[in-house]
Amino acid sequence: TKDRNGIEQVVLRNPHGASARVSLHGGQVTSWRNERGEELLFTSSKALFKSPKAMRGGISICFPQFGNCGSLEQHGFARNKIWTVEDDPPPLHQNDSLGKSFIDLLLKPTEEDLKCWPHGFEFRLRVSLASDGNLILISRIRNINGKPFSFSFAYHTHFSVSDISEVRIEGLETLDYLDNLCERERFTEQGDAITFESEVDRVYLSSPLCVAVLDHEKKRTYVMRKEGLPDTVVWNPWEKKSKAMADFGDEEYKQMLCVDGAAIERNIVLKPGEEWTGRMELAAVPSSFCSDD
Ligand code: BG6
């Protein structure tokens, strides 16, 4: 099928009625629905499905730079590029295809990309929908250059929530974080689970493999499991910043929370021929559930 801008998108379905949509624009996941057809990812009603910018919502890829600390455009160029479908990628671990509906995408730099980031790479993204409805993203980035390069990375994930004031995050208590609202100054989280009453824009460092977002009103918990992604970004623009964003509704901050599996504090360094893998698995379950911590 095509998205609103006429760009190809792929629909994944599982046998129980769950689904996901992946756009070739940015390799962005634009929808993830459970078996009841409920949308689990937030997309702004003002989102622009217009190349070359990433649309506001879903899960976008931040690569090779997270944020604006660097010479590239905010969050890097990968989310603004058209990816291709790869029919026969190098094999992944067997469990990563078994019983799943999936699509493999590929991004390689164009001449223009090489001018602003002169590093030869192949970026393979697999998006899978498992038979239990879980959504799995696996990124493999390979250095096909003669020289090492380094990058930062995030799965910029917009969860749909019923009311941000009723939401809390578990798994990030007592961690150090970099505060993007204070020039990335380092602080230590003091309280219990994280709750929201104003703008938040933080990179939690060395976070556990499993982080949970609890939505009391919907009686739903999002569980994020990550591998190769030590950091977790938490972002909500709150009232003032929402009004300043053209592609975001004034009140929409109440219905969305970004929690990103990421590698930011320490850049990933790849020598020639080396490959890095970053895996994020999302589940949406009826109550609090975070088994492997
Ligand atoms: C978050 C960042 O991940 O993304 C914020 O921490 C940023 O600083 C937000 O404002 C949105 O970025 P963008 O480029 O999609 O508007």
From TrEMBL:
<dbReference type="InterPro" id="IPR008183">
    <property type="entry name" value="Aldose_1/G6P_1-epimerase"/>
</dbReference>
<feature type="binding site">
    <location>
        <position position="74"/>
    </location>
    <ligand>
        <name>substrate</name>
    </ligand>
</feature>
<dbReference type="GO" id="GO:0030246">
    <property type="term" value="F:carbohydrate binding"/>
</dbReference>
<keyword id="KW-0413">Isomerase</keyword>
<dbReference type="GO" id="GO:0005737">
    <property type="term" value="C:cytoplasm"/>
</dbReference>
<dbReference type="InterPro" id="IPR025532">
    <property type="entry name" value="G6P_1-epimerase"/>
</dbReference>
<dbReference type="InterPro" id="IPR014718">
    <property type="entry name" value="GH-type_carb-bd"/>
</dbReference>
<dbReference type="GO" id="GO:0047938">
    <property type="term" value="F:glucose-6-phosphate 1-epimerase activity"/>
</dbReference>
<dbReference type="Pfam" id="PF01263">
    <property type="entry name" value="Aldose_epim"/>
</dbReference>
<comment type="similarity">
    <text>Belongs to the glucose-6-phosphate 1-epimerase family.</text>
</comment>
<protein>
    <recommendedName>
        <fullName>glucose-6-phosphate 1-epimerase</fullName>
        <ecNumber>5.1.3.15</ecNumber>
    </recommendedName>
</protein>
<feature type="binding site">
    <location>
        <position position="56"/>
    </location>
    <ligand>
        <name>substrate</name>
    </ligand>
</feature>
<dbReference type="GO" id="GO:0005975">
    <property type="term" value="P:carbohydrate metabolic process"/>
</dbReference>
<feature type="binding site">
    <location>
        <position position="79"/>
    </location>
    <ligand>
        <name>substrate</name>
    </ligand>
</feature>
<dbReference type="InterPro" id="IPR011013">
    <property type="entry name" value="Gal_mutarotase_sf_dom"/>
</dbReference>
